[in-house]
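User: Could you check the structure of this?
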Amino acid sequence: MKYKHFLRVMLAYQRAERDLTELGNMGFDFFEGKYNLSHTYIQILESAIKPHYGKAGWEWCEWYMWENDWGERVWNPDDGKPRSGARDKDGNPIAYSFESLWKLLETDYKKKK
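Assistant: Sure, the predicted structure tokens are below.
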């Protein structure tokens, strides 16, 4: 998948998730119940990612979005350096931004045609 397409689908989902959260703060619940739009949106994103990177690649995306809070949990706000998160075998940070996540997926999880 080209980076611009990857970024487009990830940012679209991120915006949708934030919009649903904002609506939730106003009293509309789209995360549970009859109108679970959150589940629908994640299924759309998963359908865009899995054909290119498989289940393991999709799990990296899930980690990046929820465990790593879209890359926000990795950076130390005081010095701007990585403080935690995923690392490669040499201890270098990986999957700390959209681009680094995409590079990881392209390098290690891209499905062969």
